[in-house]
Amino acid sequence: MTELHPKGVFCAALTPQHDDLTPDLPRFVAHCRWLLAEGCDGIALLGTTGEANSFSVEERKAILEAALEGGIARDRLIPGTGVNAIPETVALTKHALSLGVDTVVMLPPNYYKGVSTDGLFAAYSEVVERVGDQALKVVLYHIPQMSGIPIPHEVIERLRTRYPSTFVAIKDSSGDQANMEAMIARFPGLAVLVGADPLLLPLLKKGAAGCITATSNLVGKDLATVYRHHADPAQADAVAAAQARIVAARNAVSQFGQIPSLKAALALRTGHEGWRNLRPPLMRLTAADEAAVQRGLTAVAG
Amino acid sequence: MTELHPKGVFCAALTPQHDDLTPDLPRFVAHCRWLLAEGCDGIALLGTTGEANSFSVEERKAILEAALEGGIARDRLIPGTGVNAIPETVALTKHALSLGVDTVVMLPPNYYKGVSTDGLFAAYSEVVERVGDQALKVVLYHIPQMSGIPIPHEVIERLRTRYPSTFVAIKDSSGDQANMEAMIARFPGLAVLVGADPLLLPLLKKGAAGCITATSNLVGKDLATVYRHHADPAQADAVAAAQARIVAARNAVSQFGQIPSLKAALALRTGHEGWRNLRPPLMRLTAADEAAVQRGLTAVAG
After folding, report:
1. Tens of pLDDT along A175-192?
2. Contact call for A88 and B56, based on CB within 8 A
């Protein structure tokens, strides 16, 4: 059986911004380094948590280039490259490949709602055909609550049949444990990456390949503990303690809005005010909400 | 009282494509000319019906430039310029202004769902501030069934208070007649443009400024009749007949999917097969579905 790819704990990295809302590239690189030092296996940059859709194509390219120039190994990076316009998805994907980054996380086009399974298959096929590179490996991105475009099993089946070496994984951010279990059962060799931090533990036991999560911006170390030691009875206490911190942190940052909450937490951890910057339509937390998040996180640390 | 702007019948123009799915610019210009000859007051290019979100920023610029170079007057064009990434919305809007096209239709950023009214206000404000041109006139774009982002009256109020000469209009594609009536009543001076063809007639009677619709790709002449003569008792029969054709055409193209149906109808009218081309995730109709659309439209003509 082919080894699952990608696998491990991937952080859906936040994107720090200057006060003019341009990406703070040195701080982004420093954050990536810290995440890897904490134990993350890789960085899923330019995802929903990274505000990818709020950045232009050129800004997205610059963010990936900065990570590579900052010394992050190319096999640690799985950038998001899926946007609404196929020519831009193709351009972003080719750009990643040109830099030696061969695994990307790809949203489907998501402006039109209620599209057919034929249409969704055609959209992904069109990108693969236009990229035209056997090295490409795609992580499908199932996040229906945001994109409005679920990725049905039928489409996964057809894509894997037509492009077996390309569609290697899916990130499931729906929070629907039954869907993840069903995909693991139905698609041997498909790396199912859990998108909800607390579900990493139960789904590893079912055969998940790992996770791409938001709270790993704070608790990557705990997620790494769960990932590495979940099957070791001697580590059961450490795993249980890590899982408890993951759940508590996830709860703390989910009260008001995950992305502003995580950015507030990074501002508090690092003492850098600029971490609170966000692109509209996302807004920073009120002081009262931020205090509530902070109380939740202090309880985690305590 | 300031005259409403924009007003009249605007066609949400389809975008014809070559077989390689690049925009067929000469055919697009010819279509725009035909629409104006039919009686449309202007062209709302690069909207939902025009598959705008499926085109890259560069393609969108080329489509607007082609219309101008093809001799369409700049005051007849209201291009869509709103995308998810604010820098790209700013670039598209500045590009239109640089060509003398001062009125644009602007979707809000629509990847993140459930955004706050503060966030939505901030997103539009950020664009206006970055464009920094007093000439700019924005048509807000309310199409919650596609974008997932309704534009609440509170946000309209705040934008018009802060930028009174900029936020001049709203296109309401929700089909919610009560919402359009409420906006007409609450915001004197705001041009409410109806997004559903059959609703033009009833809403003109309430004070709507006109319409931006999809079916006008076929029945622009009838919409123009309704718009120009709805208040003239001597034209009551002509208006009623036009309205009946509008309703029938709208029904005919709404059985399977408006955009593929309208493109199929254009292919049938012009004899040009390429009109059926669409970018995924949209797909052309099956032969059986197209035949059903054709039957419905033949009944309209008969």
Report:
1. 999 999 999 999 999 999
2. yes
